[in-house]
Amino acid sequence: MKVRIRGIYATALTKLFLDNGFEIVQATPQISERFSLPIKDEPSDVTVKDGNDKGELISIGEDIYSFLRKTFQTSFVWKSPVKLYSVIETNNCKFMDYQVEPCLDKGLVVKPPTEGRVILSSPKAVGKYSMVWRGDGKTFFSEHIRDREEKTRLLSISIPFNKKGYNVKWRSNAPFANNIVLKEELEKLAMRFDNDDFRQQGEDFIKVTVSLEDKIMLDEIRKKVLPNTIKFHHMLKMSFSNEVDEIEQTSMNNEELLDKLITEYMKIEHIKPDGRKFELKEGKVIYKEVNSDYYIVRLMRVFSREGIYDGLNVKKEEGDYDIVEFDSRKWYQIHRYYNKDGKLKGIYVNISTPPELLRGKLRYLDLEVDVVKVGDEVRIIDLEELEKNKDIIGETMYKKIFTIIEEVKKIL
């Protein structure tokens, strides 16, 4: 299978894919040099690239779910039940219990349900190199096609179809195919569109929300290619770019950069298996410990609104505060809630992947199940949510969660 790789994980991923028998195409000059790879300007079967905030990996094309699930054992790995670029028929603005936007009776999936809804456009016939649909007779280009001569070549192939009333959009693979292949695909797509035949199209869409543990795993793989790679390289790259390169070039350690990520107040990002991100109330840093192998950040969060503490079922009152510690070596955070006079109200232990440090923010993947203590009673909560998301969490973490629960119960 031919794989195109882009983004901050490119070096580690290239080694991983090569070691597992994949073929790398459209490699950047830097990757070609690092791996002594011949330049293969060929169409890819699958593209693997950064997601929106570089904390995610996206795979589009052929199905490599099994490989990604085996590789990223402590990350969330989600395969869309709806294929990208498939054409679906909807019922009352819904498809497979997902909300559909806009509310079309039939449409092309342009965004799978990564946020709980499917985004559609009007139906199009989609191939490896292009998309075709009836319209104003115009040609469009993928944002990745920038070369003027290449655009001219592609335009010369699509203009005859434009004159017949077809719109054509050239995809990023188009520059790597010859004129005969491209023309043949346009002919097939035009026929498929006119015959309303979209049965064979669609590409697998897989999202990996990469945990700190798996980022460190990628650090170690990258280190086999570039020995100066520092621990937390991929995590630090999310907040810094040139600074990480400079430190690695001078063989310095990572402590200075880690310390720069810790600000007076820190936000907390809580990521659910279904991809939803919640920002918890920020806290003031009351203790920090940073060295090249781990970090600890302790926060105080003061509450000004009344309510009920979820899970604890204890009243929240003005002046209450929470002391919580984030340790990059631990798979949980212990929240201790006090009233304004310093009396303990309850303890809530959030089971999660070890926390990452971003600029002014702590982030972790929430593993659904939690442990709470009020008075002398210790309870495990949300086990049903864990079971519901078992496939996304994966077998390795699923088993580990129960070990962590026992560890936490002993602490409490």
Automatic annotation (TrEMBL):
Its EC number is 3.1.26.-. Pfam families: DUF402 (PF04167). Residues 274-410 form the DUF402 domain. It is an enzyme of class 3 (hydrolase). GO terms for molecular function: mRNA 3'-UTR AU-rich region binding; RNA endonuclease activity producing 5'-phosphomonoesters, hydrolytic mechanism. GO terms for biological process: rRNA processing. Gene3D superfamilies: FomD-like. Keywords: Endonuclease, Hydrolase, Nuclease, RNA-binding, rRNA processing. Belongs to the FAU-1 family. PANTHER family: PTHR39159, UPF0374 PROTEIN YGAC (PTHR39159:SF1). Probable RNase involved in rRNA stability through maturation and/or degradation of precursor rRNAs. Binds to RNA in loop regions with AU-rich sequences. This is Probable ribonuclease FAU-1. The gene is fau-1.
